[in-house]
What does this fold into?
Amino acid sequence: MDMTFLLNNLDQHFKLNPLEARVLVVGLGATGYSVAQFLHQTPIKFAVIDSRSNPPSIENLREQMPDVPVFCGTFNQAAFDVATHLVISPGVSLQEPILHQAIQTGMTVMSDIDLFACATDKPIIAITGSNGKSTVTTMMGDLGKAAGVKTAIGGNLGTPALDLLQQNADLYALELSSFQLERTSVLNAAAATVLNVTPDHLDRHDGMEGYAGEKQRVFRGNGAMILNADDAWVVAMAETGRQTYRFSIEQPADFYLQTGPNPALMFGSQVLMQASELPLEGAHNIANALAALALGHAVGLDLSAMCKALKRFKGLAHRMQKVADVKGVSWVNDSKATNIGACVAALQGYQRKVILLAGGDAKGADMQELVPAITAKSKAVIVMGKDAELINAAINGVVPVHFAANMKQAVAKAAELAEVGDTVLLSPACASLDQYKSYADRGNKFSEAVLGLAAC
It folds into this structure.
């Protein structure tokens, strides 16, 4: 890490210099710990605070950085009074009273992404959206490698952004959540995209306008804009005078799906690859591939090499992942569909009606928005979790609804309902933390139950 480059950028953008600054890192999960590790390599004075008594990384922090002051169990006002700058982890709401007050009084707020942007001069691809961002970010890692460019991926997905700096990559692809973007101000990505905007995290944002506004922050700067021409919220984000590429699965665009007897992924009039060569289920994954190609093209990656990589791309665990075929029934794990838009996209990818497993924590979303897709694409729905009744009430008898107390019961009921040729799709449209450690834990429980059927 070029310390002079970093410190000059921090001083220029945030008036943060080692002589006067006192940074308070708020939150000690994976992101907060990565920030602490990063700052510990610099001459910047900092402390760490977490409202939890035993945050996940506390033992590692105390062992590796015994000189760093740590405050746990509450948000201590005295720690905030001393601070000049706050680096707030994405898991901590800016509406926390003590944070809201600090922001109102003019305290400088930063994110780990701001620190990352100040630490590197390598090109950054920034990827956000309600759905598909993990898939596209992972694609970019494979596409960059295939094009001969050392590419590191992370951010909201997997490795925290600051930890990626250790890889000395020539290109970085970052998945960014709305929570990261709302506290990020100096990211100037070489290419950025908002893949789509559908209701999500409305319990933490000021309605859809506020949520879309946070997503739009990914386009700050002067890099290339990659826009989904099929999403009205994203289309409205276009800026005059910026290099722009549009992608679409519904209409001609810079990168688009040509329909007909042999559907193909196109760049203008150039056929890039046949849609059948993409080894992923669902039309939404064609859109993801088009977005990835546009992003890569915007930063100079070879189109032919990227297409070769796409033909080998196997997708992500818990994202439209085929678990097994049992007695003529296909079982698909889409546990990462933690919002309505992801579930709708999964359903729309099927020609034949499926049996849908849904439910969990709806995060304040309006389940009525799920009903058109369920009506068109589901023969039955099995609901579970905290907001199961909300989904049932929204469906209101349009299709049969069955309740399950847990995943094992849900899978057993689906097996009872399914006929040869059916697909059973776990695509919850809700967060998982009401019953599971994570969406991955939920998906694993689904897979275990399905494989239990196969063993019978």
